[in-house]
Amino acid sequence: MNRGFFIDRDGVLNVEVNYLGDPADAVLLPGVAAAIGRLNRAGVPVLVISNQAGVAKGYFTEADVKRVNDRLAELLAAEGARIDGWYYCPHHPDFTGACGCRKPAPGMLLRAAGEHGVDPAVSAMTGDRPSDLEAGANAGVTELYLVRTGYGRRTEAAGDGLPPGCRIVDDLAEAVTKFLENGM
Ligand SMILES: [Mg+2]
Ligand SMILES: [Zn+2]
What we know:
Elements: E1 5-7, H1 32-41, E2 46-51, H2 62-77, E3 85-89, H3 93-96, H4 107-116, E4 124-127, H5 130-138, E5 143-147, H6 152-158, E6 167-169, H7 172-181
Parallel strand pairs: 1-2, 1-4, 2-3, 4-5, 5-6
Helix pairs in contact: 1-7
């Protein structure tokens, strides 16, 4: 029954810039590296779950997504933090048809859980849009955090589309604090 910590990427880990395809624009949000470092030291796999429809739309390539992820990993490493798995969906229904990985579908979370020996039922999902939290709920995650970074304030103001029990926190650091307080 290993716990894992699933997180959305854009607007949660890094500054939301609307279709991030250039590693030069990859900037960590404040406090993120320290928060992920706490999860690392607690032995909790940190798994990034990201919709990257910019690939389907032709704004950037999968290689660009990987370059951005590599840059974020480098920025985290400089502060002693590590992501254990990077997952992304390159699809969009209007361009590439339906898929099982684009959030709110649970495909990426379930795959990540399987590959890292994590049980979604005792894990957390943190995101800034309803589809992040819905994907968590669809994967059986019950500990759901909406952050106020990225599109989070807009999501909070809209006030709908959030699964029952979803908690609202200021940022990733607060979500991590609450998750670790919940214990095993
Ligand atoms: Mg996001
Ligand atoms: Zn997909």
